[in-house]
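Example 3.2
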Amino acid sequence: MSGAIRSCAGGVVFYGDEVFLLMSDRGEWVMPKGVIRNCNRSNDVALWRVEDEAGIHAEIIGIAGNTRYDFFSEGRGKEISNRIQWFVMRALDRTFHVSYDQGFLNGNYYPVEKAREMLTYDGDRPILDNAWAIYRENRNREE
């Protein structure tokens, strides 16, 4: 059975010393992300998804890396491989609005160490670690 590859983009969003996480309708703690469609640029998609899923206005300050996860889609009857490019983002303020209509159950800013433990997928932890290092380096340069 052949699978499909989907290119996605997401944001690791920081404000102060905290990072934003969402809880999906399956109870998974994740970072905002979405599928890239219509030849849109990955950085634009990442910013849109952060705003759409979390109501956060942010700016990109770097690239955190890439992850991949595979799953079987019952609806499509085949394997799906999501390949996600992650961007390091700084929220312009601490406001957010969890998009319940997209199936998210919860969300908030959490201290990075706590968020690291909360993340459902092991592959997201190195992305968070790398994003945190880039964010701190960027913040230190600005001070």
